[in-house]
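This follows on from our talk about sequence and fold. Please put the record directly below this note.
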Amino acid sequence: MATVLDEFRLDGRVAIVTGASRGLGAAMALGLAEAGADLVLVARGDAAQVRKGAAALGRRCQSIKADLAEKAAAAKIVSEAVSAMGRVDILVNNAGIIRRNSFLDLTEEEWRDVFDVNLDAAFRLSQQFARHLVAAKSPGKIINVASMLSFQGGIRVASYTAAKSALNGLTKIMANELAPLGINVNAIAPGYMATDVTAPLRADEAQNRAIIERIPAGRWGSPEDLKGAVVFLASRASDYVHGFTLAVDGGWLAR
């Protein structure tokens, strides 16, 4: 007899995950594989460890090297993914970069670099992915990776805050238009996670202590903390969830 746990299974589905070679992307990709999904890993770096983990789970796995800042990358990724795997069902827009600088000194290049990857690439890839699903008359799931800075201002991260805030809004408008077409669009907003991006903060003793003291859970998050959220939003269990940004933040926003 089927149970609610069966609603979380992703057997037979194919997930595209960007920025999948390390950190949050690698953990979410493996979480999807653990739930049964086959993977298409999009990254500029080597995703060998994720491929190895997926293979150990008996999942098919395809890697695509791409620079998401290039406008032509989105169509190429969707085309290659469908050609290699036969179908696509889930898209996780995880790839992102950050540039730290004061607002007064932030350069046009630093602003543009962040928007090219964190917002523009997510828009283009989501559009190509959704067009494919509509043409194939197939339902699907799009999951954007937002941030605490989708809700807060931060300091010395103007381009990142602006891009992640815009991604939060993009998630909502996409959900409004794509829900009637059978496509769920939601987002995950990770809290302070122990990754390469946050290494400078964790290395600063005073900043590290201040951050932990403000997190009700009393610790930095780990990439593995996102597995449950991404599987939920990728699965049938979230079929009636549209346009929502789920914070996985140890309670940070509750403060």
About this structure: The first strand starts at residue 14 and ends at 18. The longest helix spans residues 108-136. The domain at 4-247 is CATH 3.40.50.720 (Rossmann fold).
